[in-house]
Amino acid sequence: MSAQLPLFEPRANLGWNVRVSRRARRLSVRVYPGGRVEVVVPPGAPARLVHQFVHTHRDWIDQRVADLSHAAPRAQELRPQTIELRAIGRRFAVEYQAVPRRGVLVQTQTDSGALVLRGSVESDVDVADALRGWLMDVAHDELGRQLEHVARECGLQFARMQARRQRTRWGSCSSGGTISLNACSLFLEPAIVRYLLIHELCHTRHMNHSKRFWHLVESFEPDYRRLDRELTRGWQQVPGWVFD
Q1: Domains in the chain with CATH codes
Q2: What is the pLDDT of residues 65-77, one digit of tens each?
Q3: In this predicted structure, what is the pLDDT of residue 221?
Q4: Residue 146 half-sphere exposure, CB side, CA atoms within 13 Å?
Q5: Which of 78, 121, 186, 204 is most open to solvent, judged by the fewest CB atoms within 10 Å of its CB?
Q6: What is the pTM of this model?
Q7: What b/e string do you get for 104-130 counting C-beta neighbours within 10 Å, with b at 16 or more?
Q8: Cβ distance 181 to 164 under 8 Å?
Q9: CB distance 68 to 31 below 8 Å
């Protein structure tokens, strides 16, 4: 269970809130595309501690809000005419065909490379569900292939890869060596995605962001600082239909 509480006076701090979660063991903060800020706290956390936590992280939060607020205009894109997956250098024209069937089926035309959506295409919900399913399939195949390539290039190993669709993380690596990659990264430039893969692969050696971790990252990608900043701003490239 969780509850939503205002962090400050709503008129002064629109979009800020606190979510009390029984699963939380510590305070954390999330900034979502569009600039909404959520502070997650365990039950019983005193207001003084929450305010102190926000004050300590305010500069980081403000920067993230500035970066992710620019994602808002794309959040209105629910029925795309074209889809560009920069990470794999593919651009798809999207065609909509209304036919009497439940849901929407996505088919790729091999001759033109267009995406054909057939079914209840008058429903924005059905269209978005179908496109998200298609995107996850592409992410599993293409990002998985790229991860294997970069792992061989860097001499690093991972147990398995899974594609996910998250609002706050581009990737993660478990202690067992499972690397999770956000399907949204398909909308980013190839160099940024390569950095993301290197970042997560380096976590198979160092499960932290210590100096040794960053030295390992730098050994494979000297320009990692710039690419990390670009990755942070990458939500600006993600269209609205990707999210529920």
Answers
A1: 2-69 (no CATH), 75-242 (3.30.2010.10)
A2: 776 665 544 545 6
A3: 98
A4: 24
A5: 78
A6: 0.74
A7: bebeeeeeeeebbbbbbbeeeebbbeb
A8: yes
A9: yes
